[in-house]
Amino acid sequence: MGFLVTVAELGFSLLLIVFFGFLSVVVFEAWRRRLSYVSVEMVTTLEDPKSLKPIPCPHITEPAEKYLSLIVPAYNEEQRLPAALEETMDYLQDRASRDKSFSFEVVIVDDGSVDGTKRVAFDFVRKHTVDNIRVIPLGKNQGKGEAIRKGMMHSRGQLLLMLDADGATKVTDLEKLENQIIAVAREEYSIRNPASKEMDFRIGDVQVSAFGSRAHLEEKALATRKWYRNFLMKGFHLVVLLAAGPGIRDTQCGFKMFTRAAARKLFTNVHLKRWCFDVELVYLCKRFNIPMVEISVKWSEIPGSKVNMLSIPNMLWELALMSVGYRTGLWKIHQACDTERSS
Fold first, then answer.
1. Cα–Cα distance list, 267 to 138, 180, 277 (Å)
2. Which residues form the Glycosyltransferase 2-like domain (predicted)?
């Protein structure tokens, strides 16, 4: 009996050591990342592949020059990127031909790809000009969240849409998000500025976010996902509730739109760099009282996904970092870029 007690005590002691050791590592890493939102290198120039001359790189704190920016993070997407870009450019050019007030840009962020992604992206720049398509190469892989953040920070649109390079969500669905954002923004603007006239309203100045969602697919069975994607979606829901609270059913859909004011507020504060940055966006929207709307979008699984079972430990690690970072006060809220500066 005494031997069994000793073994039990030893086992319990080992569990405590592992638990506090893990907690110490999480706290240390959260402390190390406490200034990650301001320590990221900013891009100052972009390359025009036609003239080979550098052009000034815009910043989110400057006034908008386009109506819509589409940010596409790409990591080893040589095979899937061309079809998605062709479909995207066909839609954007068709819309621009019908509406002369509509202007756009596509910002491709090459997240340290080791295949021909950068070459494919620059081929599209040569075809459509650097004013319509721009490439931001990160050099080394930094994660999807950081790639999107870089794209957002250097975009020119009043509305900014993030979408995946695989084209899993039809680009035409952006109009669903756009219409909801406009409706919510007008309502918010009229409440906060009752004496202002309609002509004073600018969509980019009102903080609103719209989250594309695949939650409806579980009931309607409109898409067939691999088993590990279903596992991630269902298992993730409970963890997200604990980390960010309720509000958005599908935080991981890669189809999200923000007004310029909302993007400026959110992406100057994001700390997470990989898969769970979406959850942090939800948390920050709540923290800043930025209105969120969730809109169902059509989605289909495209072969070549980067999400797999090995993503689960990384997701849990990032959620643990986020929880510790914000709950301990190690991760501060950055307020310096709340408004845009004059160009």
1. 17, 21, 10
2. 69-181
Provide the strand spans (E) within 57-214: 66-74, 104-110, 133-137, 157-162, 209-213
Distance CA 255, CA 71 (A): 10
pTM equals 0.84
8 Å CB contact between 124 and 165: no
What phi and psi values does residue 186 have, to the nearest 5 degrees? -65, -40
Q: Which of 309, 316, 296, 285 is nearest to 255 (CA)?
A: 296
**DSSP characters over 220-248:** H--S---HHHHHHHHHHHHHHHHHH-SS-
Residue position matching structure tokens 């550098």: 54
Question: Would you state the structure tokens that stand for residue 238, as one six-digit string?
Answer: 């409970």
Measured distance CA(55)–CA(10) in Å, rounded: 64
